[in-house]
Write a structure and sequence with these properties.
Elements (H helix, E strand, L loop, with lengths): L1 E7 L1 E3 L16 H13 L11 H7 L1 H4 L6 H11 L3 E2 L2 E2 L2 E2 L3 E2 L10 H9 L1 H9 L3 E5 L2 E8 L3 H21 L2 E3 L5 E5 L2 H4 L5 E3 L2 E3 L1 E2 L1 E4 L2 E4 L5 H21 L5 H17 L10 H19 L7 H8 L4 H17 L5 H4 L37 H10 L3 H4 L4 H5 L17 H9 L32
Parallel strand pairs: 10-13
Antiparallel strand pairs: 1-8, 1-10, 2-9, 3-6, 4-5, 7-8, 11-12, 14-15
Helix pairs in contact: 9-10, 9-11, 10-11, 11-12, 13-15
């Protein structure tokens, strides 16, 4: 099984604000300011089409008229798209207000929503060729899986790209082949796929690494490039925070570390599940350094009590928790559809007591053949972790209640082994307390005497 991931890069055909600084300022500053207003608002003569706010409103009209929106929502859209002005300020000088005829404010929550509405026909065109597509705002990714006949697969993809280019040209968008990326997953030599993808009469080469929503994906899905990138960024932020430490209170320091360092470790950390220890160890060392920075511990101090006091879980356990949260959201209609499609209820040919426990089916080797990534695939990891939860936890419907269950981590299993995940947490944290019955006898845990226990969800989130 081979896969092609095609990431389109396009931009709106509007006047570039950078042209504002092309000419020098004359003696009449206000006249020059208004002149540059005109340069921003005008469209170059050799551009055939432009995406204006009125056209965006027209493109969204079919969705708005579907009956799902009230008059107040339509007014919200209209106020966002129309009636904006701009000024140019240079030093102490300010120009007169100039009405905007194109463009929308940046950074608003409504921007990606309206972009998805406007780009909805593009997804329908791509699916018409049998390709998968993921869209978010200006980020569009095409997916094509094939077992054999790579020439036919490449031909279908090129035809799809030609149709996409035609639709974009008719709707005020322009494809940029130079920034479009293609990733091939599989043995390129065995598949016989060469640099034969053509976009706007430009050959698009295959890349070993591509960026997808802030994550670096390589052709082997090893995630080493992503981990190295996150490690470099987190270490740099740790260095900056360490210089600010004398000026921050303890609680402020913890918040800064969470915002600048831990957030980088947690972003898309579900992809780190099942990675080799030599890869995830880099992230764990950064978390240890961040914990010592917050608590003021020394470099040689044992990290176990430090993480215990901060109520931080190790990196790989945080990743497993993230997978469970995504699974709960997907099963209860709170997550994306493409994740829910990977989860299927377990069906047995006979009536068993486990039939009412809400188990999920784990794909067989025929369905998930890639040995290198099978134990990391969401379709395999999510059912494995979910089935290990107690029955009363799996029947919870409220999201906050699910996250706050103190006993929901008892029977979590590692996706690559049959050991209790809870056992690993016990060894790591070493909490003191009475021996729970669910741990069983010492002989059932490899002959190790366990007298400590820890509630998985209690301290995380």
């Amino acid at each position: 099984m081979f896969s092609l991931c095609f990431k389109l890069y396009y931009y709106f055909i509007v006047c570039c604000p950078g042209q504002l600084w092309e000419n020098g300022w004359g003696k009449n500053k206000n006249k020059n300011l208004n002149h540059h207003h005109h340069k921003i608002a005008c469209i170059h003569s050799n551009w055939d089409t432009t995406l204006s706010m009125a056209e965006l409103m027209k493109g969204a009209q079919s969705t708005i008229n579907s009956g799902f929106f009230s008059g107040l929502v339509i007014q919200w859209f209209r106020s966002f798209l129309l009636g904006h002005v701009q000024k140019v300020v240079v030093g102490d000088e300010c120009s007169d207000p100039w009405a905007l005829t194109c463009g929308v404010p940046q950074g608003f929550v409504l921007s990606p929503m309206l972009s998805n509405i406007y780009m909805k026909p593009l997804g329908e065109i791509i699916r018409g060729f049998g390709l998968g597509v993921h869209q978010y705002a200006d980020d569009t990714q095409l997916y094509l899986s094939f077992k054999s006949e790579p020439v036919k697969a490449v031909k279908v993809l090129c035809e799809c790209l030609e149709a996409v280019g035609g639709w974009m040209a008719a709707n005020g968008l322009k494809l940029n082949p130079d920034k479009t990326e293609v990733l091939f997953l599989g043995d390129r030599g065995q598949a016989g796929v060469e640099d034969s993808l053509v976009l706007n009469r430009v050959t698009v080469p295959l890349k070993d690494q591509v960026h997808s929503l802030g994550v670096i994906l390589d052709s082997q899905l090893s995630m080493e490039a992503q981990v190295n990138s996150v490690s470099r960024a987190a270490v740099y932020q740790l260095h900056l925070v360490r210089r600010l430490r004398p000026y921050l209170l303890a609680d402020c320091l913890a918040r800064v570390v969470h915002a600048l360092v831990i957030s980088r470790l947690d972003y898309c950390n579900a992809l780190y599940l099942g990675l080799p220890l030599k890869v995830t160890r880099k992230l764990q060392l950064i978390q240890n350094a961040a914990a010592r920075l917050v608590t003021g511990g020394g470099r040689r101090d044992h990290i176990t009590p430090v993480l215990k006091d901060l109520h931080w879980l190790p990196v790989r356990f945080r990743a497993q928790f993230k997978v469970l949260v995504l699974t709960f959201k997907a099963l209860n209609g709170l997550g994306p559809v493409y994740l829910k499609e990977r989860l299927h209820p377990h069906r047995s040919a006979r009536t068993l007591r486990s039939s009412a426990e809400g188990l999920l089916a784990v794909p067989s080797l025929r369905e998930a053949k890639l040995q290198g990534t099978r134990q990391r695939a969401f379709s395999v990891v999510a059912p494995t972790l979910w089935n290990a939860l107690p029955s009363d936890v799996k029947t919870i419907n409220n999201y906050l209640t699910f996250r706050r269950q103190p006993c929901s981590g008892k029977f979590l299993r590692q996706p690559c082994s049959g050991k209790f995940l809870m056992y690993d947490i016990l060894v790591f944290f070493g909490f003191y307390g009475s021996r729970p019955e669910w741990l069983g006898k010492p002989s059932q845990m490899g002959g190790v005497q366990i007298t400590n226990y820890y509630y998985y969800y209690y301290y995380y989130y």
